[in-house]
Amino acid sequence: MRYSLTSLLINALTGHKSWKPQWRDAEPQDGYDVVIVGGGGHGLATAYYLAKEHGITNVAVLEKAWIGSGNVGRNTTIVRSNYLLPGNIPLYELSMKLWEGLEQNFNYNAMISQRGVLNLYHSDGQRDAYARRGNAMRIHRVDAELLDQVGVRKLYPFLNFDNARFPIQGGLLQRRGGTVRHDAVAWGYARGASDRGVDIVQNCEVTGFCFDNGRVTGVQTSRGLIRAKKVAIAVAGNSSRVAAMAGMRLPIESHVIQAFVSEGLKPIIPGVITFGAGHFYISQSDKGGLVFGGDIDGYNSYAQRGNLPVVEDVCEGGMALMPAIGRARILRNWGGLLDMTMDGSPIIDRTATEGLYLNAGWCYGGFKATPGSGFAFAHLIARDAPHPAAVHLRLDRFRTGHVIDEKGQGAQPLPVLWTPRRRRIQLSRRCDTEAARYRRRRCRH
Ligand SMILES: Cc1cc2nc3c(=O)[nH]c(=O)nc-3n(C[C@H](O)[C@H](O)[C@H](O)COP(=O)(O)OP(=O)(O)OC[C@H]3O[C@@H](n4cnc5c(N)ncnc54)[C@H](O)[C@@H]3O)c2cc1C
Question: For a 10 Å CB count at each end of the chain, is N or C smaller?
Fold first, then answer.
């Protein structure tokens, strides 16, 4: 059913009894042309664009739980394309352009709100780095504005500009960035794909892969064997686990990251703000809750719940940036999983096994990439050639050394250790001796 003012009126006058489920809850068939493992944003978007752009509709999306139960429904909803490196900018900008027309495209209200994303800077060096990033963006025809302190004050007068440790000097603003209602993205893509004939199979966990002569021939699942000509993996935080079933060891670690929502407040934060001197970012939902988050938890895990040290770290960041936040009560918090590659950039590529494709390594930024990633992954699966926007996002870059080191700080993630006295040790080249010393001490006790 197409949503329109007329359909809304008709249903309103008839007691809202004829709305149909938004997608078919399909039973798995014996075989498909394409099986997509993972019913998150990326898997569903891939299925949608396979059907819509390439006419490939004999497709199943296999989801071990329910649609939207993963990170697509757990993130803090920020979308932007303010990247630095030529390997990344085209994909994120493709994504941004797709966000801009998405609601009309899949006829679903995803509450896309281009309210602006502002990255604050707190030192001359950071200003220069942001100026460079803004220039790189503009070279790629992505909008970017470098604001000084006066410019930021006009937008957000309540920030703590004169914090003795982290005075706010200005910020890099992308006005086209903003927020999107995350679970509506999953539902919209699921509905659009299902309408075009894709089977969305929930409660169907992939437990193994079938191969014949170096080619993938199907998947084993909790609901039986499903044959497939092509299999695409898009399981985000579970990438290393699922890839291991296919005999692959990925350059990816899974880490927990937490999100927080406060009680509903009157509108105070019109856009998205990120603190440049710590890991803290914040926006306000349409219901009024402040939505915020920070750093990853400093250990590898597949558990979708986090721990208290990061809660404290996030609250400290929030208080340094806008002390007024200290009066807001936190209503909810939860954890999700990030599939962190060592260079901070994603992978959209074929694997060494014929017919097996990989979409992974989205780190902190997979939600904003959802439309672009699905579009490029569908292109790769349908044509067996990379989409021009994803041409650098190859798996073998970690072997050949052509990494896309977006942050320019070497291998990531940099885990954090917490000492018993709650001192935070960031493992980096500079301080790994200190961390090693702490670890040795801890082992002795
Ligand atoms: C707290 C938090 C905040 C974030 N904030 C942002 C943000 O503001 N902006 C941004 O761009 N990104 C953000 N992210 C990252 C973003 O959410 C993820 O990178 C992105 O959602 C991952 O892609 P996905 O939607 O396909 O993943 P998921 O929704 O996790 O989809 C993967 C699916 O695969 C399924 N699966 C796993 N194993 C199997 C199996 N064996 N068989 C079948 N199915 C399987 C899972 O159940 C899951 O549903 C955040 C993440 C978290 C957790």
Answer: C
Distance (Å, rounded) from C-alpha 354 to C-alpha 130?
A: 42
Domain that holds residue 445: 415-445
Say which residues have a Cβ less than 8 Å from residue 19's Cβ, sequence separation at least 6. 1, 11
Pair 362, 224: CB distance under 8 Å? no
Signed CA dihedral, 151, 154, 155, 156: sign only: positive
Distance 70 CA to ligand 1 centre (A): 5
Same domain, 195 and 234: yes
Distance 135 CA to ligand 1 centre (A): 31
Q: Is 189 touching ligand 1 by the criterion CB < 6 Å?
A: no
Atom 19 (ligand 1) nearest CA: 366
**Together in a domain, 322 and 421:** no
Specify the residue with its C-alpha closest to ligand 1, atom 3. Answer: 75
| Ligand 1 centre distance from Cα of residue 40 (Å) | 6
What total of structural domains would you count in the chain?
Answer: 3
For residues 335 and 319, the answer to whether their CB atoms sit within 8 Å is no
Tokens of 39: 């019913």
Half-sphere exposure of 86 (CA within 13 A, CB side): 4
Burial class of residue 314 (count of CB atoms within 10 Å of its CB; 0-12, 13-18, 19+): buried
Which atom of ligand 1 lies closest to the CA of 281?
8
Q: Which atom of ligand 1 is nearest to the CA of 245?
A: 41
Specify the residue with its C-alpha closest to ligand 1, atom 2. 75
Best mutation site among 209, 241, 367, 406 for ligand 1, i.e. most ligand atoms within 8 A of its Cβ? Answer: 367
pTM higher than the cut 0.70: yes
Write the CATH number for 221: 3.50.50.60
Write the pLDDT tens digit of every residue in 197-238.
Answer: 999 999 999 999 999 999 999 999 999 999 999 999 999 999
Query: Quick one: 129 and 69 in the same domain?
Result: no
